Amino acid sequence: MTAPTPTAAKPTVQKDRSMAMQKAMVDGNYARLARAEAERRKVAYTFVPGNINELLMCFDLVVNYPEINAIQNGMRKKSGRYIMEAEKAGHSEDVCTYVKADIGMMLKGNIGPNDERLPNPDVLMLSYTGCFTFMKWFELLRHHYKCETAMLHVPYEGGSGFSKNSRDYVVKQLKETVIPTLERVSGVKFDIDRLREYLKESQKAEENWVWVLESAKHKPSPIDSYFGAIYYISPIFTAFRGTPTATEYYAELRREVEQRIANGQGPITPEGEMKNEKYRLVVEGPPNYTSFRDFWKMFYDEGAVIVASSYAKVGGTYDFGFRHDPDHPLESVAEYCLNCYTNHNLPERVRMLETYVNEYQADGLLINSIKSCNSFAAGQLMMMKEVQKRTGKPGAFIETDLVDPRYFSPANVKNRLESYFQMIDQKRRATAA
Ligand code: SF4
To answer: Cα(12) to centroid of ligand 1, in Å?
Structure first.
């Protein structure tokens, strides 16, 4: 009889202080949501792209982000059964899986990722930025919860940048519709100086966040701008932007990254520091969350680091200069919404990816096409070909899904990545020759 093989002890990974801070923030918001009804606090549901978090804080609202719940449930392997639940209720296979994970969770009693019931919304704050699904999603929630909806219509970017008319149009809606609705729902009078204070905090956090993003220009890159960035973007894209806690988080993150640069270190992965950077990639498209760690491992095992990604800009394209501005509070809230990635047209997205490949000295562009996200998937093949043509660097295309485990095929993804890395090696040899 063979003796049982001892299980290898998993190496303990040293967690940075910023990681603990980020986790405490996320857990704290879920705890606030769980207490909201008992404490008679009003609750807003809203989306990540183009969110108006600082404005929502002016009304003492507790804010719930349904996309974040879907992501958290995806990472905790719970989203698959919620998606099936939504499909049983009639939602098609092609619908965005964030929506189905959310609807399924709602149908099963709205138990949040922290295993506590989420409160019903008092208001659905719909900042509409480029993805039509946002509108249909909140129509479904409104039908279920029968609560108020405040719609902020953000015009899609037609050319390069946005016009003053577009900005004024958004400001007008803020003044005439959004603020009065939030005052009525919350019972709190709007105070523009309170908004200015929050925007001051946002600006400070945004400065440090851009510094962290741009640190990936170093070789080796001290951060992973896709997988690692999923954790980094959480405070600034959700319920914490505008708070001193988020400001402190980005200051701490910056200090840690400065230290990694000084030590010549690569990014921190779930298995510790990535050594021997071999490939530098730009990635377009959201990640897969149901197999997030296995997916990431396929990269760091090969020495591949993501130096820039469009997904890390989904809640703000700060690296192209935008900052919230306390001196022009409502105008800057409007500009923020207009500027987010989902509101950018295809030529602008191509321009941005081309800039990343060049400025971050990447080996090429990888597209992770998401089966159920039409907003990102539209035009991605054209984008890949165009970026290849402009930069002379090879592109590659893989397909997964956000939070539907049925659409993550590890063998396929790994094969394609391996072929891509070989293609980059060949290209290097040809260039050297
Ligand atoms: S952008 Fe994609 S993932 Fe987000 S709501 Fe739209 S379809 Fe879903």
So the answer is: 35
310 with 284: CB under 8 angstroms?
Answer: yes
Mean pLDDT over the full length of the chain: 94
Hey, which residues does 159 pair with through a beta bridge? 161
Distance CA 263, CA 235 (A): 26
CA of 264 from ligand 1 middle (Å) equals 37
Q: Is 334 in the pocket of ligand 1 (CB under 6 A)?
A: no
What is the tens place of the pLDDT at every residue in 4-19? 333 444 455 567 899 9
Please state at what angle helix 17-35 crosses helix 227-237, rounded to 10 degrees.
50
- Counting from 1 in the atom list of ligand 1, the atom nearest the Cα of 96 is 8
Q: Residues 148-181: pLDDT tens digits?
A: 999 999 999 877 888 999 999 999 999 999 999 9
Ligand 1 nearest atom to the CA of residue 47, by list position: 5
Instruction: Find out whether the beta carbon of 373 lies less than 6 Å from any atom of ligand 1.
Output: yes
Instruction: Please tell me the distance between residue 373's alpha carbon and the centre of ligand 1 in angstroms.
Output: 5
DSSP per residue, 202-237: HHHHHHHHHHHHHGGGSSS-SS-TTHHHHHHHHHHH
Beta carbon of 101 within 6 Å of any ligand 1 atom: no
Contact at 8 Å (CB) between 399 and 369?
yes
Ligand 1 centroid from CA 384, angstroms: 20
Residue 60, classed as helix, strand or coil, is: coil
Cα–Cα distances in angstroms (integers) from residue 407 to residues 94, 134, 142, 369, 403, in the given order: 12, 22, 29, 11, 9
- Residues 230-242 have pLDDT tens digits of 999 999 999 999 9
Find the 126 Cα to ligand 1 centroid distance in Å. 14
Whether 1 has a pLDDT exceeding 80, the answer reads: no
Is 134 close to ligand 1, i.e. is its CB under 6 Å away?
A: yes
Query: pTM for the full model?
Result: 0.94
